[in-house]
Amino acid sequence: MKPRGPHQALAAPDAREAPGAIGVAVEQGTAHPAAALDDVTFTYAGGDRAALSHVTFALGAGEMIGVMGASGAGKSTLVKCLNRIVPAFEDGAFSGVVRIGGRVLGDERVCDAAPIVGMVFQDFEAQLFSTNAAHEIAFAMEQVGMPREEIAARIAPALAAVGLIGFDDRDPTSLSGGEKQRLAIAAVLALRPAVVALDEPTTDLDPEGKAEVFALIRRMRSDGLSLVVIEHEAEELRGCDRIVILREGEIIVHGAPAEVMTRLDLLEDCGVHPPDLNRVLSLLGIAAHAASIDEAEALIRARYTNLPARGASIDSGGAPALADPLAAPTDDRASAPPIVAVRDLSFAYPYGPRVLDGVSLTIAAGEFVAIIGQNGSGKTTLAKHLVGLLAPAAGTIMIDGRDRAALRPAETAATVGYVFQNPDHQIFAATVADEVAFGPRNFGLDAAEIARRSDEVLRAVNLDTLGDRDPFLLSKGERQRLAVASVLALRPRMLILDEPTTGLDYREQRRMMALVGDLNRAGIAIVMITHTPWLVAEYARRVVLMRHGRVTFDGAVRTFLARDDLLAGSSFRAPEATALGRRFGVVALGPAELAAWIKGRA
Amino acid sequence: MPIYLYIDHGSVVHRLNPTVKVFALFVMFWSVYWVDHPLALLPLGALMIVLAQLTGAWPNFYRLRWLFILLIFFTTLAWMVFYRKGPALIDTPIIHLSRASLTFGLGRGLKLAELLATSVLFLSTTKVEEFTAGLARIGVPYRVGFAITLAFRLAPLFIDSALTVVQAQSLRGYDFNRGGPLERVKRYVPVVVPVFMGALRKANNMAMALEARGFGMSAMPTSYIDFPIRPRDRVAYALLIGLAAIYFLIYWTGYGSISAK
Fold it and tell me: Between 20 and 30 A from A492 (CA), which of B129, B193, B249, B255?
């Protein structure tokens, strides 16, 4: 059924309609690709190079293409060409041709393309406008002028398609991240577009939300939608028909996942996180692609025949085999006096449920702690208590042996630094150096000391050559490091990082974590709130798992990753290298460690 | 913590036609506008208390309690400086406390508090979609109505963002309360810049998302929700017209002014 909007020219081609099916299906019996870019070049106004350079790209009907590349490679620009956000919405020079279902997009407005191209953005907060889910889904249909009865008839199937049955009256702001993004997808699907583009739809989601969204994307694909998905984690795109990798506005690789994912150096070079499974195979000298853990296990067992049978060295209690050196707990909590000691901490917002419920933990100098748990489990609320931004309803917090209640947030900041998730929540100064000097200046330090500290921390975060730059012109990764530097300038003994790698590409994530690792080796205790499994496995040594405001596990990372019962209820997914290692009875924290262990067994 | 004021309580006020609620907003503002005396404003205050109870809007009043208290207190205090009529109980070069200045100041404070309370009641009982529909029904162009309601949707997001920025800067040792009034205003630069930049980015993202969902395709989009005028809406209209007339009469007869007392 075609939308009956005032702009029929761009209405979707005749579409298959099936109850419960997601969106419109393939253009039947047509030779045209669902979407195509022909020699498209776009340079943003003021840009020193083309964001897209002579890109030619075709999305077959019913096909799913994954787009990867470093930040600034041109991924978002590419998908925004599909519904004319580029160039209609962005200033710059555009050349080339964009076709949707064989029709050339000319001077149409972005809104005119809505019935045929759906767009899902990374920032789900900015794409939900309504007070309940039904209104949210109705919005696009109202805009194209659909009759009320038809709108009403499409809402329930759209909610069902994304697994949100019964959510009609729910306030979108009350939903979890995964639910919000699924609602945004439902709102797009209600118009039954032929093509849906998703621009990093899971960046801000916890592993559970991420899994929900990718399960939905797989279902959209099996229902015949033509999809373009931008993603940094290559393993999420194994199910694509083809993968496109962009570098500096040009397509440099274009092929099937099996072809692209074995080119590990190229992936890393392009800011893409290579799949763990391929990395393990490569390190073991197995020149093959594994599309699943089962396949990787079979390939490894075929080469290394003396490996333990599945689950052999993990006992029924779920503890790792301690005889195995790899499985030895690495929790090295120092015997030093704690920097932070929390006892029986509880908290609730006015008129809200209890967010923290009897939390007790201590953190000592030199520790590296990952706080994990679902969105809303109380991680950030706990962290904000540690620095005095929130006052406990019950319980005590001691900072260096002093009651935190007696300290102002600024006083706590000299001991415990807090780096917010979004660096743009603190950056305001005209230059990088001024931004870093802000904190020490507030503490009344003299100019010489401020200059000394600024130099020191800018060197530590590798921004020492950019002291005169405008912070707003830095990349997201550089801004994140600047935020860390500006907190480090106060020389805290403990640093809390709230999702320090969100929105960064793989190369920037590695650079950021190398910095955090260096700080930890220099003696600063690190508390990292994160949803990213490989960060926890490869960098943290202790895990604090939170659920419904309580600490449900506090111990070594390896012990945590060996406990299926904890993983199952934690909304946390073990990295694939760990999951693969478990097949051989070992709890490995990364591909290199697992490959070394397997080789050692040979 | 909810970022919108709407509370899904399902009261009879919630179920009124949005046009009635927009009219009610106008009538309450109208009534408050015509009278100055605290005694004339008290019945409106009592009506608002009844409505807050009926609509379950107390959590929103609790959230804004300090704003109400400060509004009444400082307005009353301010008029003791500027309203220098009546026999003084206390007279200094700055403060002129008289029965007249106290009455006038209290009246002004109550007026502002009641305007705020009316807005809180309206937003507690009206979804933004209903607000848009209500504005469209009284002839406001769809885009203008949508822009107004979008501002209501965005305001809590920006407030939330501003609070985060304040927290981030205070953790870097920044004291917002140092210096005189001008210095204090200047000291908010480290908050204003990030909030403004964030707002620009958010507004740009939202504009893209809106257009990508078809906003702008039609000057008069269809509406998923139907708002028939029911008997209760007619009763509400009648009561509101009565209230508006009563308050105009109070003004007309002079009973609502301070000088009449």
Answer: B193
